[in-house]
Amino acid sequence: MKLRSSIVGILALALIAATGCSGAEESTKATAAGGSTLEKTKINIGTIPVVDTAPLQIAMEKGLFKAEGLDVALTTLAGGAEAIPKLKSGALDISFGNYVSFFSADAKGVIDLKIVSDGFQSAKGTHTIMVAKDSPIQTVADLKGKTIAVNTKRNISTMLIRAAAKANNFDLDEDKNFVEFPFPEMEGVLKAGKADAIQPVEPFGTFIGQSIGARVIWDTSQGPTADFPIAGYAATSEFAKANPNTVAAFQRAMGKAMALAADRANVVAIIPKYTTIKADAAASLAIGGFPTTLNATRLQRVADTMHEYGLLDETLNVQDLIAAPSSK
Asked: To the nearest 10°, the Cα dihedral for 139, 299, 48, 278?
């Protein structure tokens, strides 16, 4: 299988080189492994150096994009909020980002998006609510009237925490009960008492627990938010419409990468290569799921939960935002 992928990749690159002699980069054509002519071979993808993007890195390392005739350049983003303006301006062709941000931006008319690949779903330990070692807070019910630190209000973190509160028969207010701090600062937030609890993601949750003995009082990947879709890859509708074969090639490569990421060993091995997480630390992390198919029914859970907690004014039909995978 490795030999076949290498041969396909070499042939694809040779074809790109042969057709690129005209000097018109954007008009360069290549044939993907699926047999279709690519409208655009060089694409720029936005990414974030977190565990969630492991399949993207696997696809780069294994030559899965090259095998499809794609010449991929990665742009590292400071956070998901950067993805929307960069997609809109054309600085990025496709970008990783969380579904709440994508769906909200599309619903508000900020940008017209198409989801081109699933990316990451929660699992045990990936999204938790933690408190200081000596905190009197023992359960989610004890969070009533307390403050919780999240990286961004009115987004995936607050939504997951509010769902946890509802499961325990009380509500939390977006403005009164949440304070914003970047994930790297959350250990200090607990130590300084700037919030009663924090909602870190991996690797921060594991590291904070090891460093100061912070305790997990609730794992959000349970009940109504178990195995919850967290993030994926999106392009503008304009890009998806103008470059259907290019998008399909990206989807095929990511599908193969997602399948490889189902083996935890592959994810643990790649993490130290694109993050500052050391190999021994990577082995101890909680790692979520990497869905191999783009399923509107799964993603509709996100839109429906957003509407339930006031993050969407109206219901959103996620099927309208899905870029249907190629049948080739």
From this structure: 50
DSSP-based helix, strand, coil % in the chain, nearest 5 = 45, 20, 35
End position of a domain, from candidates 189, 205, 225:
225
Residue 5: burial class (beta carbons within 10 Å; 0-12, 13-18, 19+): middle
Strand (E) or helix (H) holding 60: helix 54-61
Find the domain containing 155 and state its range: 128-225
Phi-psi bin for 217: left (phi > 0), alpha (psi -120 to 50), beta?
alpha
Asked if the peptide bond before residue 203 counts as cis, ω within 30 degrees of 0, the response is: yes
Q: Whole-prediction pTM value?
A: 0.88
> Quick one: pLDDT at residue 23?
40
Amino acid 76: pLDDT = 96
The answer as to whether 326 is a domain residue is no
DSSP of 101-132:
HHHHHHHTTS--EEEEEEEEE--TTTBEEEE-
CATH of the domain at 162: 3.40.190.10
**232 and 311 together in one domain:** yes
The number of domains in the chain is 2
Q: At what angle do helices 156-167 and 296-308 cross, to 10 degrees?
A: 70
pLDDT of residue 80: 81
Out of 225, 251, 278, a domain closes at 225
* Pairing status of strand 148-150 against strand 197-198: parallel
For residue range 131-176, what is the model confidence (pLDDT) as tens digits? 999 999 999 999 999 999 999 999 999 999 999 999 999 999 999 9
The pair of three-digit structure tokens given for residue 148, joined into one six-digit string: 């919780």
Clarify whether residues 117 and 179 are in a common domain: no
Residues whose CB is less than 8 angstroms from the CB of residue 155 and which lie 6 or more positions away in sequence, other chains included: 98, 100, 101, 311
102, part of any domain: yes
Residue 315: pLDDT over 90: yes
Domain co-membership, 185 together with 237: no
Planar angle of CA 156, 186, 291, nearest 5 degrees = 35
* Amino acid 25: pLDDT: 40
